[in-house]
Amino acid sequence: MSGSEASPQLVAEGGGDTTEILDIRGISVHLGGSVEKLVVLPIPMASLIIALDGSSSRIAALHPQAAQSAREGLMVRMVPEAAGIRSDVVIGAQFNPNVETLLSLRPGAVIQWSEPEDSILSMENAGLRVIALQNNPESEARNQQNMRIVATLLGREDRLEQIIALHDRRAAMLEEAFGSLAPGSRPKAIYVRADNGTLRVAGGSTYQNFWISLAGGRNPATEDGLAGLTPVSAEQILRWDPDFIFLSAFDDMLPASLFTDPVLSQTSAARNRRVYKMPHGGYRWDPASHESHLTWSWAAQLMHPQRSSINLREDVRHSYRLFYNYELTDQDFALVLQTTANATSQGYAAFQSIR
Amino acid sequence: MRNRPQTASTRLLGLVVIAIILVSAFLAALAVGRVSVDLRDVILGLLSTGSESDAAAIVRYARIPRALASLLVGACLGMAGAVLQGLFRNPLAGPQTLGLLGGAGFGGAFAILLGFGAVGVAGMAFLAGLVAIAAVIGVARLAGEFSVLMIVLAGLLVSALAGAGTTLVQFIADPETQLPQLVYWLMGSFSAVRIEEGMALLPLVVACGVILWGYGLRLDVMASGDEDAQAIGLNVARDRIVLLIVVTALCAGAVAVAGVIGWVGLVVPHAVRFMLGPNHRVLIPGSALLGGAFLCLVDMTARSATVAELPVSAITALVGAPLFLMLLVVHRRRSLVGA
Questions:
Q1: If we measure between CA atoms, which residue out of B21, B68, B59, B22 comes closest to residue B39?
Q2: Is A251 touching B (CB cutoff 8 A)?
Q3: Contacts with A221 from chain B: Cβ below 8 Å
Q4: Residue-wise over A289-299: b if at least 16 C-beta within 10 A, else e?
Q5: Is the torsion defined by CA of A342, A345, A349, A351 positive or negative?
Q6: A37 to each of A85, A96, A109, B254, how far by Cα in Å?
Q7: Cα separation of A119 and B52, whole Å?
Q8: A61 DSSP β-pair partners
Q9: Alpha-carbon distance A199 to A238, whole Å?
């Protein structure tokens, strides 16, 4: 898979003099040499920077949600110094930058989502250099575009190539295995996020839809014309009758609650105990990130255990060694793969074996 | 709004007809959904106590809680609107126009931000609703005259302040976990309602309904003006406070269960007044019954019409606005004929 889809040409000149980055808006941002101090507002990107740089030393500040994710997942265990990064750089809890705090940090650059535009302009008007990325990439090509911009900014294109190679190899493998599967041979799979009882399902134009398809499934929500994360009723989920349900790592809903829900327990997914809580490692595995190849492998192995020859544990072990220079323990595996939450889910024992 | 003269028997008959509409709406809500369920399972779902079929379980656990909750929330909002319109002698008064829903909505949103459960959300919605209505009265009195115009202006002011507070709550809400829930809740939804939450409204509706019905005759007099009420010995100030507390409790209960739902409290009392006249002892139960039927059908549409769940407030506005316009036009024609 290539990340060249509509990709702006990236220019990295430097050697300590000047660096020029073309961000997702197509705007050329001139930086005074290599950037040693970054503020990172898009939530998954702090984890990517740690993976590219091998440390968190260049991250001066990150989004509070990224700090929370680091604490809840494995990041703080893998990179303990990440726990000490300040996160008081947004006003409120969204992506509105606290420009005064940012100015006091004197960052070499601020990484920000490209929308809303106002949240970039306020920083640029204050003289900060802002590198914009595409919000919530809905495909791997877009994901790689964002990652390339960040890698160029860091001067870590070599490390990115290793990550891209992992992604491309795994994508090609899955494409070969499942790309030609007829819709009738693909299990129906949906991704669900629960916000205090309100169920939202991923439709078209979401990364979750992309990896469900790549991993050999078909998303009935997309087939019914839904786009984005859209609220639906439990009855609608029952009407789709999915074979697999993937539960978001962003909320507290667990497979056990679906198995006992009077309506959702009637779905084929629940009857066959094919409901799974998404893993959470260096970052949550639901959205696009540098760990996404692991998401695809995980989903493919669950949906097609007979056709998939992937050794997920080995995959995760190798990737985390590469990204974070960290050797996973069995306890770490359990935390990342949410083995307790998924203990009674079909086929999950395959992920729980020690070696 | 002037209405046709009604006899006691026609008013009673009208209430019976509205009650039949309510029962029909409730049964329709049990029968209609995204999954096809036959009549036998609808009945089984309604009657059985646990060993029902899958289809009956859908009726029992997915449809009945929502149908009951929407029915009771509609009753709350319908009664609240009927009382406010009489109390303020203002046909435009309603829980929304007087800032009550906005205030309660802000309280509930703030409680969600703080991570409170259902009881906390209801409590905060009640307190904020009380503060909002007190502010409306205070501002209207501050201006020197307790006129209809001043009440509406004060309602606008309080609504704007509550809206600003709610915007601030959204601004600082967690973008991944709290914000989507807040936004959806503020547009009104029964998607997450549980049977016990819905049924918690029943004693509130009954108690408030009985109190308001008891005040029906006084409301009739108060609707004619404070001087008339005081002339026959009513303690207008005290009665007004009691009624406002009861109305606030109804709105807070409704907001706590389903979020902010507009138009019901404005349109439904007008429709009942149009059909059965301005007598509050008829208007209040009539508004409760028709409000319940209306919102029950609205929620049925919200969860059944499309693949996605539709926001309830969007449907009440789509239906309520033309209905309100139609009532105005018919009223105008009648006035011209009677002139």
A1: B59
A2: yes
A3: 307
A4: bbbbbbbbbbb
A5: negative
A6: 12, 20, 7, 51
A7: 54
A8: A39, A86
A9: 12
Give pLDDT, residue A5: 43
Whose structure tokens read 């990440």? Answer: A82
Select the residue from A247, A263, A271, A278 to test the B interface by mutation, using most B Cβ atoms within 10 A. Answer: A263
Asked if A235's CB is within 8 angstroms of B307's CB, the reply is no
Name the band, by pLDDT with cuts 50, 70 and 90, for residue B228.
confident
Using CA atoms, how far residue B19 sits from A167, B12, B300, in Å, is 63, 11, 18
CA-based R_g, chain B, Å:
20
- Of the ranges A71-85, A295-309, B69-83, B116-130, which is most confident? B69-83
Rg (CA), chain A: 20
Please name the residue that has the structure tokens 């989903």. A299
Put simply, the chain B residues between 280 and 319 with a CB less than 8 A from any chain A CB are 303, 307-309
Among the listed residues B103, B101, B81, the one whose alpha carbon sits nearest the alpha carbon of residue B93: B81
Q: Which one-letter amino acid corresponds to residue A92?
A: G
Q: Looking at A109-118, B40-49, B206-215, which range is the least confident one?
A: B40-49
Its ipTM equals 0.80
pTM for this one? 0.85
Cα-Cα-Cα-Cα dihedral sign, residues A62, A68, A69, A70 = positive
The beta-carbon neighbor of B180 closest among A43, A195, A263 is A195
Cβ-defined contact of A239 to B34 (cutoff 8 Å) = yes
CB contact under 8 A, A198 and B180: yes
pLDDT above 70 (res B146): no
Q: What is the DSSP letter of A284?
A: B
The pLDDT score that the predictor gives to residue B202 is 95
A-B CB pairs within 8 A amount to: 95
Tell me phi and psi for residue B53, to 5 degrees.
Answer: -70, 175
Q: Which residues contact B12 (CB under 8 A, 6 or more apart)?
A: none
Q: Which residues of B touch A96 (CB under 8 A)?
A: 171
Percent of chain B with pLDDT over 70: 93
Going from the first residue of chain A to its last (355 residues), give the mean pLDDT of each consecutive group of 10, the final group possibly shorter: 42 56 92 87 94 94 90 89 90 85 94 90 93 94 96 94 96 95 95 87 96 98 95 95 96 94 96 97 94 97 88 93 94 94 92 61
Q: Could you tell me the two tokens for A330?
A: 């069995």
Residues of chain A contacting residue B171, judged by C-beta atoms under 8 Å apart: 91-94, 96
By Cβ distance, the residue of B62, B175, B307 closest to A263 is: B62
The architecture of the domain spanning B8-338 is: Orthogonal Bundle (1.10)
Q: Are B314 and B263 in contact (CB under 8 A)?
A: no
- Which residues of A, range 207-236, sit inside 8 Å of B by Cβ? 221, 224-226, 229-236
Please report the pLDDT score of residue B87 as a whole number: 86
Chain B residues 114-143 with a CB less than 8 Å from chain A: none
* Residue A35, pLDDT score: 87
What is the number of other CB atoms lying within 10 angstroms of the CB of residue B8?
A: 9
Chain B closest-CA separation from residue A46 CA (Å)? 17
Q: Chain A residues with CB inside 8 Å of B193's CB?
A: 197
Q: Please tell me the predicted confidence (pLDDT) of residue A15.
A: 47
According to the model, what pLDDT value does residue A17 have?
Answer: 57
Of B57, B177, B309, the CB nearest to A231: B309
CB A95 within 8 A of CB A103: no
The mean pLDDT value of chain B amounts to 87
Rounded Cα–Cα distance for residues A264 and A271 (Å) = 9
